[in-house]
Fold:
Amino acid sequence: MERSPNPRARSTQPDAPWQGRHLLGLEDLSAGAIASILDRAQVHAQHAAQSREKSQALKGRVVFNLFFESSTRTRTSFSLAAKRLSADTQDFSPTGSSLSKGESFIDTARNLEAMGADILVVRHPTPGTPKLLAENVACAVVNAGDGAHEHPTQGLLDLLTIRRAKGRIEGLTVGLLGDIAHSRVARSNIWGLSKLGAKVILCGPPTLVPRGWERLGCEVAHHFDDILPRCDVVNVLRIQFERQHAGLFPSVGEYSHFYMMTQERIKRARPDLLLLAPGPINRGVELTPEVADGRHSAILDQVANGLAVRMAVLEMLGGERAE
Ligand code: CP
Structure:
């Protein structure tokens, strides 16, 4: 968690799990800080299951969503999370903005800050953009996905989903399957899972698993059928065609033959296998429809937990905790 000399920074409550002003990546967070966010998110998740009553934690605060890439889950749930905390929330879309007249990204952000923004939630195709933003504004910045670098709230919601389903994270074996090379979700999962004591196996074709990632403490494998029986959890990552600049495998059909999660493969997995996929999912490419909708799948639980995680993050960065 980055610190910034923010003249407008409000004091956080004494027991705040982290004292920084931004959430840029899970690489920056300690295990204790991650666990504190998960604890708070779990409170929100349990509350949401019983009540739609809003918290007043961010009343009077302003949250801007700046999305320079497409999004369904992240943008919507940040917006809803802000509303559930009684913040004013506003989406900023680059399309139709004065960026087309040559205004810079930083000047754009400073103008939003001049309108009273307390938190800027940013998704951008260029890695490091949220950090650049954090260095140039006084308000809090949340990374909602920067290129192939990190997607910290996705990592947190994956951790929360695992912890709620399995009761723990430490000691579990988690397989990250597919396009590791282009996946910001993979990076945030690796940091978060490793810090909380899980074993991480990266599995995919050699062209989609970066060399040398054993250095991060991960096991690297290329034969999914070999590692599947050892996995407590498999997180199925999307093939990120939009970030690939060359053919990295012969065909989608060949990829699916070796790496698609099917009912046949489920039969060879642990009976209590937990299946995650960050979405969007491509049915028939990374997993079959039967598996996506089957009893091992926690895909929609992830989405529900995402709302709780984003409430916890916005609350911790922007306001006083409501008990
Ligand atoms: N998982 C995820 O980030 O989904 P969106 O791209 O729809 O936000």
